Amino acid sequence: MPDFKLQQSQRAQLSAQQILSSQLLQLPLLNLEQRIYDELQENPLLELIEEKNESVDETGEQSGDDGDDGDGEGMFDSVDRFEARDEKRPEKNEQPKESQEGVLHFTVDTTPKENFIQAIQQDSFEERMLRDLSLREEIGSTELLIASEILGNLDDDGYLQDGLDIVADGLLTNHGVDVEPRDIQRVLHIIQRMDPPGIAVASLRERLLVQLELNQAASGSGGAAIIAKKLLDSYFDDFLNNRYEKIIKRMQIRPEQLEAAIKEIAALDPHPFVVYQDTGDYIMPDFIVTYENGRLTAALNDRSNLSVQVSDAYRDVLKNRKIPRGDKQFVRQKLNRAKEFASAIEQRRHTLLSVIDALMQFQYEFFVSGPSMLVPLGMKDVAEKSGFDLSTISRAVNGKYVQTRFGTFELKYFFSGGTTTDEGEELSTKIVKQYLQEMVSAEDSKKPLSDDRLAQMLEEKGIRIARRTVAKYREQMQIPVARLRKKIF
Fold first, then answer.
1. Same domain, yes or no, for 169 and 130?
2. Whether residue 85 has pLDDT greater than 80
């Protein structure tokens, strides 16, 4: 007899509404507009409406035109907000009180802003990569979803700093797709070897090894290439620190062989992602934050007045008994889809406003005084403040921008670790790195500053960090060690 076994397990099941909301949340403004147009073409029960101008004043009361559809109710629910009467930032875990700071004033501005850059629609780097991937026979719809999630998690230099579990979590949350780590690894391996090579790797060493591997496959494995690979594999730290005599002795090679290997490595590209970033794509801010007369205001940029509602034109079809059952079923399906889509659009706005609300409270001094006042902040803090889960915050800030009087910043910019100064104030690692960059830029090229000296100079500014921490930040900024800077300059 066959052996039957009962097994009980728990799996997350996401509704179609949750998946749609997650998909719309991650879209930048221009892509959202295109998605709305596409949905209007496919669903006759959706129609465009003029977005009403809603705002929340300092009393927390909502104002604006009353709409016919109640799906957007609660989108601008009252939250604690504050207004600047001085330039003191609220405590990180303390809800600002009106008696202390006043209110943050939120409006949904539906008129085009003259100071918004009118973006030109072009294929993004991610879109180009996905298009190239779709032409491969071994790539199906699931692999394309995996690739999209990987590409969406790249940092500014094209590195994939987060682990594969973050990619898997994003696939499950945003698309309802549960995949094995080996499936993600297989797609990742393909992306890393596409053009430009070395994208989505975890380190500079891995990037150079990938590029070297592809060069060897294209032109054959010469002696210099073999030595270069061994150099990167086993002596990468010595190579970065220019310990050439040590390398020659340990690898038992001649100086001219090492020189040839270094030429092979020097021909590689440590920053392939930069070339593909600035290709004419313009930034369209999702928010504009202003500070006037002691008042901090955030406006959501609905520049094109695009919003949707369920049309009443087809509702009578469901009540008409003369209409064939098949037609009624079609209308019923489209009606449900229209309701889900309209609700997802409103949920996206509510989520984005909640995120910018939290960011303005945590980074108040940044918006008032400038980037030098950036404080350490984790996505977990914003998740707890806004009431959303961590994955939702991650999707909400990815590819979204806010325009301030100090420039336009991606929302990701506001998240960083931190250190504590001698005065007990928390300082963002971004500010520490900025100080390091300024010090290195101003140094004497004949006598570049060592990590010890950089640590001393930071200490003079009241920032006490170890030399190894300085070295860590320097490496993250792709700044060579002192001896290499001397040779380069």
1. yes
2. no
